Amino acid sequence: MSSRLPSTPPGLSGFTYVRPLGAGGFADVFLFEQNLPRRPVAVKVLLEDVVDDNVLRMFNAEADVMARLSAHPSILTIHEASISSDGRPYLVMEYCPTSLTHRYRREEIPVAEVLQLGVKIGSALETAHRAGLLHRDIKPSNILVTAFGSPVLSDFGIAAAVESRPGAEEVFAMSVPWSAPEVVDERVSGSVAAEVWSLGATVYSLLAGRSPFERSGRGQNTRDQLKARIRKAVYTPVGRGDVPAELDAVLARALSRDPAARHTSAAAFAHDLQVIQHRLGLPHTPLEVAVDEWASAGSPVDFDDDRARGPVRSAVAYETRRPARQRVSVARRPDEGTILAGAEPRRRPPVAMIVALSVGALVVAGGGTLAAILLLGGAG
């Protein structure tokens, strides 16, 4: 999270600004209230001075990926995306009041809650992978908690395709404490196996109160020191009395140095967590994965799209039978007030209308008796 002050909130039609929520390297997030339907929303808006082709490409991909996946109950919902009146692209998303950013460091999260969260986020990742998409930044701070207490995966800002096209430039982005050895060494920019590692590292962190390769003591967890430990990938048990050995074994497999030794999918990792739920006598969290027909529907996300997409004024020519308006000038005469010079002269109203207007004037001037006489006379 950036230490700078948030930028100026965007002016959005149909939304009322409430307060800032956070500031990042490329974007700020604000709390707005949507006017119709009435609901709180989080608005993520890009910073004006960082918008270039690469940032627009990432922004468009994030909007498209989230729109494609947000029907999943464990993925943050996106409501709309556009460009504000001052030219900044923005996303309107579901507002989640809390996240897991610091909670796991402040308190001991129950094992039952962590297992449930692991299955839910594993389901979300499996759905993304079946749709051909990678998240590439799974960590506790990217798991938000909805108003109903459900965890949802957010921030697809560096998402990528599972199968990258030949010749495409690889972009390496990582959050070191939760990144796989092959990502730390920049051998791959992302893969299903690397996502399994990051999910395992996230579950470990929620149980242990620290990331898997942190050590106690000041000055023991610099970026380079963490990278060196991740490359060796020597697993250290969580160290909680209520964490069963079976759960440590599942996490150790997910955090294997060799990608081939890890779970073959996010669904396989989530299934192992379900087995532990069963052995502990806990309710089973369902594995919610989209059907294959959904995954193959629609066009794939274009990760090379760097256009500034948003509301535009149509430039398409079309024919119309409506006569063109005559441009006229305005002139003023001292005795006649304002007239339209060059306009057609007013048509004289029909005689019947003149008679009706005259009758109305007499009614107003003469009172109710005269009005009755005139009306009876007109009827005869």
Task: Describe this structure as you would to a colleague.
The chain is 34% helix and 16% strand. It has 380 residues and is α+β, with helices and mostly antiparallel strands. Helix 3 (111-130) packs antiparallel against helix 8 (266-279) and helix 10 runs antiparallel to helix 11 (368-379).
Please give the count of helices. 11
Order of strands in the sheet with most strands: 1-2-3-5-4
Strand content: 15-25%
Number of E strands: 12
Profile the largest sheet. Answer: 5 strands, antiparallel
Rg, nearest Å: 33 Å
Mean pLDDT across every amino acid position: 80
Q: Which regions are unreliable across 5 or more consecutive residues at pLDDT < 50?
A: 327-346, 351-380
Global geometry: globular
Percent range for helical residues?
25-40%
Report the order of strands and helices: EEEHEEEHHEEEEHHHHHHEEHH
